[in-house]
Amino acid sequence: MNEGPLFEYRSRLRAGQVRPDPAQELAVEKLQSLSKAVRGYRPSAGEKGWLARFGLGGKAAVPAGLQWHPGDCEDGNPRQGLYIFGEVGRGKSMLMDLFYEFTNMPGKRRVHFHEFMRDVHAAMHEWRKSGGADPIPALAKQLADNAWLLCLDELQVTDIADAMIVGRLFQHLLDNGVVVVITSNRAPQDLYKDGLQRQRFVPFIELMGQRLDLLELNSERDYRLGRKRGLQVYHFPNGPAAEAELDKSFARLTEGAAARPDQLMVNGRVLDIPRAAIGVARFSFRELCGRPLGPSDYLELASHFHTLVLSGIPLLSPENKDEARRFVTLVDALYEHKVTLICSAAAPPESLYPTGIGAFEFQRTVSRLMEMQADDYITRQHIS
């Protein structure tokens, strides 16, 4: 039967919607094999239910055409999912979307990793309020009952609260029979580098290597840069025309992916992202500079997103000095991490802060805003 992510990928190749890419083709072939393996699968027997799919750990017959690496693990058992990692712009999220959309099964969930962990922490908090001791086994069972195919996009661990629990959480998820597909910019061993109490995070790294098939998407082409090249990123004055240009740029960079609210954890606090999709975040000036945010918030944002779309930058002056100061801090963080800034403003950079106390100091920000419009800056590698 001609169905699944591989057939859709090749259909898009023929239509010229994607370019030939050997690294992507290898990844989508693995995803096709996994798609066959999970079709009709239910984790009624936990991990043993997954083994039984391959005639292991039970007497179940192997489904016809099943070719999902049954001997890959050291213990001879089949890997329970796929961990795809590689540099920004290689197509990881696009491939996950293909897999998710064209794997026909109930009980599947696709979610951004930060959103997933936010839900996990909220559920753990409610569990502890009810007097429960260890929430992780029960939470993992609940997650497994709701979705036995879990697709997690953009795994990145920077918060100690996440680092301390992901190992046990994923151990229980896998033991409950959940099949996991993960995308990340980093190999497992490079996650949470130099983080506090990293030794407690190491079991998660080991678990990924033991239970999932690790695949580096080693494409030579950065598709993100192709979409960025030639972009006009600074639009003025503010108004419907500028807003329409931001809409077009957002759609171009996210390839039409659905934008969803997101959250980042910053020093134990939640930073709300109004709209985000595949590495692009969108804010209004008021949302990002009109509330009491500081350098740590902007640095976390800059490390996580390769592009920021910002609308409605007003004229700046001593009258809105707090907003102006935050904007300066934001631009510094974006510049440091080589984030592309696509924005609408009341005036060109050199006229944004025309007079008054602070106008002279703002000249460094003007210089950076000018440099950040150049193709040479826009196509630089984002520093996550």
From TrEMBL:
SUPFAM superfamilies in alphabetical order: P-loop containing nucleoside triphosphate hydrolases
Leader peptide range in chain numbering: none
GO terms for cellular component: cytoplasm
Entry-linked Gene3D superfamilies: P-loop containing nucleotide triphosphate hydrolases
Pfam families: AFG1_ATPase (PF03969)
Keywords noted in UniProt: ATP-binding, Nucleotide-binding
UniProt cross-references to InterPro entries, sorted A to Z: ATPase_AFG1-like (IPR005654), P-loop_NTPase (IPR027417)
GO molecular function, one term: ATP hydrolysis activity
The protein's name: AFG1-like ATPase
